[in-house]
């Protein structure tokens, strides 16, 4: 659905060139929710704005739904953007217009005839659960309601792709949960492909099918969430399920074990019985993730690692990712 190849964007700031996006390649599959994660300044927002060419890249190509946007003229691009919705961190609503008026404005810009707008606006507000707030102005709406108006507006052109720029970072936890549930519902009901940027790992846990970690303008890790966390040394696994510093325990082997949805969660007790080991759980968590359950545990086994070859093989044969932490 979205294919990015060799994307590069440089800004000139304070007498020097700053490369915000540095040779990024990325593929987002049709119908998935794809998250781009990174710290402030990593290049996430610039990457997102390059997808709909609000920022035109210096090099590389962007293809959305089979159309290479970077090859289009400006008039062609304006038409193509109507099939790409965007929701913003701070809502970007017109304070002088009601909720219905904000959604209608998007339809006006697209040239939808007046007689068709009212029905479409009502349909979109109902879709996001705000049918009863059509005549409310932004100042009369909560943060979550404002974001729902923004989502309804982004859906005005019946897009195949929805871009989300930190859409939940200005919301409280309860409203964030409701907004993420709405995005998943829209993804499934409308078949939307969603590309979002976030710095919140909880958003990845609750919503994303695939993810990319971005640092200094580059993608350092990308793929389906369950596949990434199962890779030894995965940054995503460490960020989603942090275990903290490895403790110094004399005559002890410390293991970091990652489990995914296919893993039998009774593996600790099985390991203890089968190999007559006093297995201790030092920390960790197992949580819902990408429609299944996954997590990391830190285990302590008595003695040095060379005594536990059979036990480690057993864990890996069971589908677990096992790393010797100490």
TrEMBL record:
<dbReference type="InterPro" id="IPR027417">
    <property type="entry name" value="P-loop_NTPase"/>
</dbReference>
<keyword id="KW-1278">Translocase</keyword>
<dbReference type="InterPro" id="IPR017871">
    <property type="entry name" value="ABC_transporter-like_CS"/>
</dbReference>
<dbReference type="InterPro" id="IPR003593">
    <property type="entry name" value="AAA+_ATPase"/>
</dbReference>
<dbReference type="InterPro" id="IPR045865">
    <property type="entry name" value="ACT-like_dom_sf"/>
</dbReference>
<dbReference type="InterPro" id="IPR018449">
    <property type="entry name" value="NIL_domain"/>
</dbReference>
<dbReference type="Pfam" id="PF00005">
    <property type="entry name" value="ABC_tran"/>
</dbReference>
<protein>
    <submittedName>
        <fullName>Methionine ABC transporter ATP-binding protein</fullName>
    </submittedName>
</protein>
<dbReference type="InterPro" id="IPR003439">
    <property type="entry name" value="ABC_transporter-like_ATP-bd"/>
</dbReference>
<dbReference type="Pfam" id="PF09383">
    <property type="entry name" value="NIL"/>
</dbReference>
<keyword id="KW-0472">Membrane</keyword>
<feature type="domain" description="ABC transporter">
    <location>
        <begin position="2"/>
        <end position="241"/>
    </location>
</feature>
<keyword id="KW-0547">Nucleotide-binding</keyword>
<dbReference type="InterPro" id="IPR041701">
    <property type="entry name" value="MetN_ABC"/>
</dbReference>
<keyword id="KW-0029">Amino-acid transport</keyword>
<keyword id="KW-1003">Cell membrane</keyword>
<dbReference type="InterPro" id="IPR050086">
    <property type="entry name" value="MetN_ABC_transporter-like"/>
</dbReference>
<dbReference type="GO" id="GO:0005524">
    <property type="term" value="F:ATP binding"/>
</dbReference>
<keyword id="KW-0067">ATP-binding</keyword>
<keyword id="KW-0813">Transport</keyword>
């Amino acid at each position: 659905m979205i294919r990015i190849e060799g994307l590069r964007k440089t800004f000139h700031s304070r007498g020097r060139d700053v490369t915000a996006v540095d040779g990024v390649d990325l593929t987002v599959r049709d119908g998935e929710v794809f998250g781009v994660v990174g710290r402030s300044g990593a290049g996430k927002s610039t990457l997102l704005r390059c997808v709909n060419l609000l920022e035109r890249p210096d090099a590389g190509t962007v293809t959305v739904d089979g159309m290479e946007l970077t090859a289009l003229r400006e008039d062609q691009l304006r038409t193509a953007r109507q099939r790409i919705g965007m929701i913003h961190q701070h809502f970007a609503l017109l304070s002088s217009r009601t909720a219905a008026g904000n959604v209608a404005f998007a339809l006006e810009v697209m040239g939808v005839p007046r007689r068709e707008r009212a029905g479409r606006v009502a349909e979109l507000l109902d879709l996001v659960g705000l049918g009863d707030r059509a005549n409310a102005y932004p100042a009369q709406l909560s943060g979550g309601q404002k974001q729902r108006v923004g989502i309804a507006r982004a859906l005005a052109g019946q897009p195949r792709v929805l871009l989300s720029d930190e859409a939940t970072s200005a919301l409280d936890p309860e409203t964030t949960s409701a907004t993420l549930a709405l995005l998943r519902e829209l993804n499934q009901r409308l078949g939307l492909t969603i590309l979002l940027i976030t710095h919140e790992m909880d958003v990845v846990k609750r919503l994303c099918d695939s993810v990319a970690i971005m640092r200094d303008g580059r993608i350092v890790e990308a793929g389906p969430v369950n596949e990434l966390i199962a890779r030894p040394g995965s940054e995503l696994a460490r960020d989603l399920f942090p275990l903290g510093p490895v403790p110094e325990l004399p005559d002890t082997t410390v293991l970091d074990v990652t489990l995914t949805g296919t893993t039998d969660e009774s593996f600790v007790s099985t390991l203890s019985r089968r190999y007559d080991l006093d297995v201790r759980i030092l920390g960790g968590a197992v949580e819902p993730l990408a429609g299944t359950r996954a997590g990391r545990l830190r285990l302590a086994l008595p003695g040095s690692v060379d005594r536990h070859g059979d036990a480690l093989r057993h864990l890996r044969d069971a589908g677990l990712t096992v790393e010797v932490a100490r």
